[in-house]
TrEMBL record:
Protein name: Putative tricarboxylic transport membrane protein
Signal peptide region: none
Keywords of this entry: Membrane, Transmembrane, Transmembrane helix
Domain DUF112: 15-437
Segments crossing the lipid bilayer: 16-44, 56-77, 104-126, 133-156, 162-182, 194-219, 252-276, 353-371, 391-421, 465-484
Pfam families registered for this protein in UniProt: TctA
InterPro entries per the UniProt record, alphabetical: DUF112_TM
Coiled-coil regions listed in the entry: none
Length: 508
């Protein structure tokens, strides 16, 4: 079966389809508002008449390219091309602003490849075991996972944790707009039928990250004709030395493991994986204060994690028929079209196609690594365009992307609303990242809370009685306690340093 899968994937036509899918996926991922999901959905009908391996290979290329392409706009424009690239903005954006866009892109591309390969290895060798572990999770356990994930807010809020918590609560509140899960009760719609389906994550991301920055740049009219700073056209390799590569291996491995684990858990997604790994690496770093100022550690953590999610999300899909995320759900439809039934017997009944998926993922990762690197000078050329020309073009793309999310003019209006909300947050010095985290995790938190309470007849003890749930809650409490203690220690150290400075000035 392995030999037949190898022959099927490495024929010229199949390789062309993987290359084509990867290139189209990169384009979709790099344009804010488009996504890997949209790419796979649009090209799914084309695979119906293809031989099974060829059709699946095209979808694999679209999936891989769509996820990795998000780093391009995240770094160059500070707009996440896909939700998975949210945390890439934190350090990739500042690197581009100070002229290191080329290096940020090179590092992101390289570690996207490494994360993808680690995820594929996990998919190939430990997927049956991991799938069994995944079966042990109940609604109560998923709720505790969401609570633990929300502790990211404490770590990313900086010194002003209260503002961070407020932003997180605003994000959760925005996610509650529309119909409630389970009973479909309408909430916070104020009689507007457009709000029944709630707000789209793409619309929120474009508004908060893109429109806010465009408005702020517009206020600085003196520099609108300036070009962005740039350097690093003549990068050697991917922008990291061998010493840096070795130093960053633990970062890449930890982030990839987090990405695989998050990918296996259905419904969480690459955005949460990137945020979790970014927070983990930041909290364990020797220089956490540098995160957010433009260092490669943050870019590596985000990109390794969100690409490792690809392999992780296919584990429950292939072994149990449970899609780990939206793209995997569409991918499941592609498998069923070709009469491939995911489940415990898939290796016996459709083994050659499973191994074909493994080979296609590896080939697509290599194509992504090569062609994104070759296109790097072209990507950086975007920064040659003066701001007064580039920013209106970006604004139009944002509106097109918002409209593409739900084919509604209302979503374009929401983009402007979220842009103004982001501007308000900037003026009040409230971090916007907790807003995004709260919005992403809000539905998972509420849906699993209600399901768990329904199953336990309203008893809250279910969250303590289940070992997995209790473990995540304990880790969450420890995480918040450690962050609060760390912030208090930093404030005491800063106060003591200030007192020393005052004393020395008086003596002088």
């Amino acid at each position: 079966m392995v030999a037949q899968a190898f022959i099927n994937v490495f024929n010229p036509y199949c390789l062309f389809l993987i290359w084509f899918g990867t290139m189209i996926g990169i384009i979709f991922g790099s344009i804010p508002g488009l996504s890997a999901t949209m790419a796979v959905v649009l090209f799914l009908p084309l695979t119906f008449g293809m031989e099974a391996t060829n059709g699946i290979a095209l979808l694999v290329g679209l999936y891989m390219g769509g996820i990795s392409g998000g780093l391009i706009s995240a770094i160059l424009l500070k707009i996440p091309g896909t939700p998975s690239s949210i945390s890439t903005v934190f350090d990739g954006g500042p690197m581009a602003e100070r002229g290191d866009a080329g290096r940020a892109l090179g590092v992101g591309i390289l570690y996207s490849f490494i994360g993808s390969i680690i995820g594929i290895v996990a998919l190939a060798f430990i997927s049956p075991f991991l799938a069994k572990v995944c079966l042990l999770f109940s609604a109560a356990d998923y709720f505790s996972v969401a609570v633990f994930s929300l502790t990211i807010i404490a770590s990313l809020s900086g010194k002003d944790m209260l503002n961070g918590l407020i932003a997180g609560l605003v994000g959760i509140s925005l996610k509650m707009v529309g119909m409630a899960p389970i009973d479909a009760q309408t909430r916070f719609t104020f009689g507007n039928y457009q709000l029944l389906s709630g707000f789209d994550i793409t619309v929120l991301l474009i508004g908060v990250f893109a429109v806010t920055d465009i408005i702020l740049t517009g206020f600085d009219r003196k520099h609108l004709s300036d070009r962005f700073q740039k350097k690093g056209y003549n990068l050697k390799g991917y922008g990291v030395t061998m010493k840096e590569f070795i130093e960053q291996l633990p970062n890449a491995l930890i982030s990839s493991v987090i990405g695989i684990a998050i990918g296996i858990l259905p419904g969480i997604g690459g955005s949460t994986a990137g945020l979790l790994s970014y927070t983990m690496v930041r909290n364990t770093s020797k220089y956490p204060e540098k995160f957010g100022t433009g260092i490669i550690d943050g870019v590596i953590a985000s990109e390794a994690a969100n690409n490792a999610v690809i392999g992780g999300s296919l584990v429950p899909l292939l072994c149990m028929g449970i899609p780990g995320n939206t793209v995997a759900a569409v991918f499941l439809g592609g498998l069923q079209v070709h009469a491939i039934s995911p489940g415990p017997l898939i290796f016996d009944k459709s083994g050659q196609y499973v191994y074909g998926i493994y080979f296609a993922l590896i080939v697509s990762s290599v194509f992504m690594l090569i062609f994104e690197r070759l296109g790097l000078p072209i990507f950086v050329k975007l920064l040659d365009i003066p701001k007064h020309i580039l920013l209106p073009i970006i604004m139009v793309m944002c509106c097109v992307g918002g409209y593409s999310a739900g084919s509604r003019v209302f979503d374009v209006q929401c983009i402007l609303f979220f842009g103004l909300l982001g501007l308000l947050f900037k003026k009040l010095k409230v971090p916007s990242t907790p807003l995004i985290i709260g919005f992403i995790l809000g539905s998972m938190l509420e849906e699993n809370l209600r399901q768990a309470l329904q199953a336990s007849h309203g008893s809250w003890m279910i969250f303590q009685q289940r070992p997995i749930s209790a473990a995540f809650l304990i880790v969450g409490v420890v995480s918040v306690t450690w962050t609060v203690r760390k912030n208090l220690q930093e404030k005491k150290a800063a106060a003591a340093k200030g007192e020393e400075v005052d004393t020395s000035e008086e003596e002088g």
